[in-house]
Amino acid sequence: MKRKKKITPYLLILPSMFFLVLFIYYPAVKTLFKSLFLINSSNIPVKFVGMGNYRKLFSDETFLKSIVVTFEYALVVIPVTILMGYLLALISASGRRLSPVYELMYAMPMAVSMSVASVIFKLLLNGNLGFINHVFHLNIMWFTDKKYALWAIIIIGIWMGLGMTYIFLLSAVRSVSEELLEAATAEGAGIWQKVRYIYTPMISPTLFYLFCVNVGSALMMSGPVIILTQGGPDSSTSTIMYYMYQKGFYVYNYGLSYSAAVVGFIIGFTVILISFIWEKRGVHY
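^ thats the sequence. predicted structure below, dont judge the formating
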């Protein structure tokens, strides 16, 4: 009977572990393995080259630039998305008659696919006929000007990530104890004191979760680049994942593609690991 109780939990997680190994760990190990080989156009390893692919990768200025572009994108999109989602959640925390309307509006980006969102923004940010240029009287070629192309991708990234961030933070903000807020009001605390000393500590686990999710999403971003700019102009929007995609599906240099994927994973893993060190000090459960 005791042995059965010990085995039962492992049997329950066995199906999920099977799919986890099949779709996560096996592809990861296979990618790492193939990154050490010279791969032909049929995606078959033909010669072991060790770290040769990585040496070639880091001697490629386009790849080094893609790392910088990825971090520039992430350093803007992650904090702005979380801050905007937090602000909107605070504004709509108290239920009003029209709450379902603007809650639906704020969450709408979740229902729009990446490809559809990219096409929408391609029309909005069109340099000649775009709505944004027309309304604000601008003369910016958003997707062909090196100074603005990445900002156009950043705007799309923020809009796409805002819906999920808002939903999670709205739920977290509404779960804060009303008695605690009323006590703070009785003590004379203003809205910013409540945000700093009550809301933020209380919802810090949700903020930490969203930070980790947004880090992964930002470091893996490639869809809008593939659809709208193809990494241009002059590689100003080429991210690590787009570089991997380009080398694998355009040039058929699978060795560099696999190596770029491994480097992207290492960068993402390192950032998440550092964030978990902060989690021990800054997150209150």
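The chain has a mean pLDDT of 87.
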